[in-house]
Amino acid sequence: MKKLLLLAAVLLFPFLSESKNVWAFLTYSTFNSPEGSYIETYLTVAGNSVKYIKKENGKFQATVNVLMTFKQNDAIKAFKKYELNSPEIADTTKNTYEFVDEQRFLVANGAYDFELQLFDKNNPGKASPFTQTVTVDFPEGKPSFSGIQLLESYTKSESVKTISKSGFDLVPYVYNFYPQKETRMMFYCELYNMDKVTAAGQKFVLSYYIQSFENKMKFNDFAHAKTEAPRPVNVLLSEFNIQNLPSGNYNLVVEARDQKNQVITSREFFFQRSNPNAKLSFDAMLAATGANTFAEKITSIDSLKDYISSTFPISAGLEHAFIKSALKSSDLKNLQNYFYGFWQRRDAANPEKAWLAYKEQVIKVQYNFGTPVKKGYQTDRGRVYLEYGPPNVISKQYSEPATYPYEIWQYYTLNQTQRNKKFVFYSPDMVTSDFFLLHSDALGEINNPSWQVDLKSRVYAPRDLQDTQTINSWGNMSNDYWDLPN
């Protein structure tokens, strides 16, 4: 089943050196201003991944050399090279904190090849650069949102600082993951040029809400809207109480709507939540009635539970929670209502047709991926197939000398928004024919920088538990399959 990890557009990644790994987390947002558009980066470094040197005052400090570069066609458009110092500490054995850095880069609209390199100054080695494409797009005179910046806290500014915007000092929340202990989700964004498209004297609706990442279902308990007068820049600084937001993958969505309730422009931000003890209400899940529908014709409670369980791969946070509780329920009517409502939410015009089409895929997954101990939809390959559809390319290797049997699936397009995404499955027990998801670069999926090491752990014993690279072995094709072009 799908796990919660830190992934994708907001990225957790290690920077490797010959002697030690520097662990860092990077997020960024894009903004517009009278001086021009800019990219704002938020970098945090794990304090226990760098070396500390004792200073003359008896305290210890680490230093990381940072190089950020933005290129277009190999031409450098912006860069910064600087030293990032940690706070001074008295005891390195109790070092569990992180230190954070924020930078701004003034750039024009366009796509940039962003490269980041980190070096531990006190433990030098050759770093492996991190690269990603960053796009800045603020059309002249047209409404658009800035990036969404998550916040740890905010206060009114007493003086202008690097972290200041719109009269507030904004301390960034540098992850896209909210553990159970976090009960507030604060964020900031800007809306540009609404005054250019709104008639004099009219207002518009600024709305923001949380939706399921998988099926885009809006959560009404986490939705707000307000009417605003158009300005060159409309600021949104707000928060949600997420104490009872269930575990799952989500989008934070901001929208500007006109007086006809038509969306003028919008922006979304992916995040994840782990909250196993959330107080859940399934009333909305059971609001639809299955009476006189295809769901009422399913009278075997065991069959109905199996059908409901098979929808887990395409379900969202609260639906996941209901499915887990439904396996303990013996209330046939409630299960029928839920099952009908599930498909009605996906195809209001013909929910039965949607179910029958999905059922065909469940049967196909059972035939191809079912094992003696798991149904097809319970396997990782089955879950990915049902959630995303058939891959465009499947590369299979079951007999390489140094690796466990594995498959690499490639999707040219995923969810209509992600391009050239891949999934690595492997079978470490080599008995049940069950292949587990080892690594993917898709949003919301397991991202394992050490996947090559784990794949070769059949014969390769890493010297460091954080190793992400292995020695090339004869007959290994995993790199070639992973690097297949779109």
Structural commentary:
It is a single chain. The chain is of the alpha+beta class. It has 4 domains: 1-136, Immunoglobulin-like (Sandwich); 139-279, Immunoglobulin-like (Sandwich), CATH 2.60.40; 284-381; 391-482, no CATH class. It has helices at 301-310, 317-326, 332-346, 351-369, 380-388, 451-455, 478-482, and strands spanning 11-16, 21-31, 38-46, 53-54, 60-61, 63-72, 75-85, 98-106, 110-120, 130-136, 144-145, 149-156, 164-165, 168-172, 177-178, 184-192, 204-212, 218-228, 233-241, 248-257, 263-273, 393-397, 406-414, 418-426, 436-440. Strands 11, 12, 13, 14, 16 and 19 form a 6-stranded antiparallel sheet that branches. A 5-stranded mixed sheet has the order 15-21-20-17-18. Strands 1-2-3-8 form a 4-stranded antiparallel sheet, with no helix packed on it. The longest helix is centred in the last third of the chain and has 19 residues, at 351-369.
List descriptors.
single chain; Immunoglobulin-like; six-stranded antiparallel sheet; globular; disordered N terminus
Brief overview:
This protein has 486 residues and is of the alpha+beta class. The chain is 15% helix and 38% strand. The chain has helices spanning 301-310, 317-326, 332-346, 351-369, 380-388, 451-455, 478-482, and strands spanning 11-16, 21-31, 38-46, 53-54, 60-61, 63-72, 75-85, 98-106, 110-120, 130-136, 144-145, 149-156, 164-165, 168-172, 177-178, 184-192, 204-212, 218-228, 233-241, 248-257, 263-273, 393-397, 406-414, 418-426, 436-440.
